[in-house]
TrEMBL record:
Organism for this UniProt entry: Tenacibaculum caenipelagi
Encoding gene (name): kdsB
Function comment: Activates KDO (a required 8-carbon sugar) for incorporation into bacterial lipopolysaccharide in Gram-negative bacteria.
Protein's name according to its UniProt entry: 3-deoxy-manno-octulosonate cytidylyltransferase
GO molecular function: 3-deoxy-manno-octulosonate cytidylyltransferase activity
Reaction catalysed by this enzyme: 3-deoxy-alpha-D-manno-oct-2-ulosonate + CTP = CMP-3-deoxy-beta-D-manno-octulosonate + diphosphate
Pathway(s) this gene product operates in, as recorded in its UniProt entry: Nucleotide-sugar biosynthesis; CMP-3-deoxy-D-manno-octulosonate biosynthesis; CMP-3-deoxy-D-manno-octulosonate from 3-deoxy-D-manno-octulosonate and CTP: step 1/1
């Protein structure tokens, strides 16, 4: 499922911006098809422009019936009455899909015989101090089994003792959910901490869901700003 809002606070209409002759959302949709990991690929949108654009390339697209605060809510509405087990959220503004990382996410559930994992997501190590301090980069800390403890825009952990070596990880907004965990999330009101941080996965933690974090070394290009779009155009040209 590729949630696709037309409006975006930092870069309005970014999913319809031209990326090498095609809109960003079409690039992402086609990339999701090409990885050959999914039984079905859908774009889920609240925008007639995006809906018509995906239809024009004979893609599968669902119109979101309600206003939603986050991608999980939009996807949950779309899959609530579909016969699915695992749902993967691919961000509409990340057209360069990392097949290896997505495979790792899906494989997590194959080895989860007791069904302890409610959802899985990705983390990537950060070493640049500016990246670590940047509130646009959501940080995640995990337990010894790589289950998420907390996500924050603040720097976590706080490095009080500089003699202790500590790693910092950025959360990448790619998820794989069990359908029931996604539906539970959908029917739970937004929590105050989630609202304060503007990080949807905090709601999962607050209602007791277990999030398995998978480390990846691939730092894909997410298109959040016009500068990001320029980087994406350069990467596409290089490919």
């Amino acid at each position: 499922m590729i949630p696709a809002r037309y409006s975006a606070s930092r870069f309005p209409g970014k999913l319809m911006k031209d990326l090498g002759g095609k809109p960003v959302i079409v690039r992402t949709y086609e990339a999701a098809l090409q990885v050959d990991l999914f039984d079905e690929v859908y774009v889920v949108t609240d925008s007639e422009v995006i809906y018509n654009t995906i239809e024009a390339v004979e893609g599968k697209v669902l119109m979101s019936k309600k206003e939603h605060e986050c991608g999980s809510d939009r996807i949950a509405e779309a899959v609530e009455n579909l016969d699915v087990d695992i749902v993967v959220n691919v961000q509409g503004d990340e057209p360069f899909i990392d097949t290896v990382s997505l495979s790792k996410l899906i494989d997590v559930f194959k080895g989860d015989d007791k069904k302890e994992i409610d959802l899985a997501s990705l983390k990537v190590k950060m070493t640049d101090e500016e990246d670590i301090q940047n509130p646009n980069n959501v940080k995640v800390i995990t337990d010894t089994n790589d289950f998420a403890i907390y996500f924050s825009r603040s720097v976590i952990p706080y490095h009080r003792d500089k003699e202790v070596n500590v790693d910092y990880y950025k959360h990448k907004g790619v998820y794989a959910f069990r359908k029931n965990a996604l539906i539970d999330f959908y029917h739970t009101p937004m929590t105050p901490i989630e609202a304060a941080e503007k990080i949807e996965c905090i709601r999962y933690l607050e209602v007791g869901k277990k999030i398995k974090m998978i480390e990846t070394s691939v730092e894909s290009i997410g298109i959040d700003t016009p500068e990001d779009l320029e980087k994406a155009i350069k990467q596409l040209t290089n490919e």
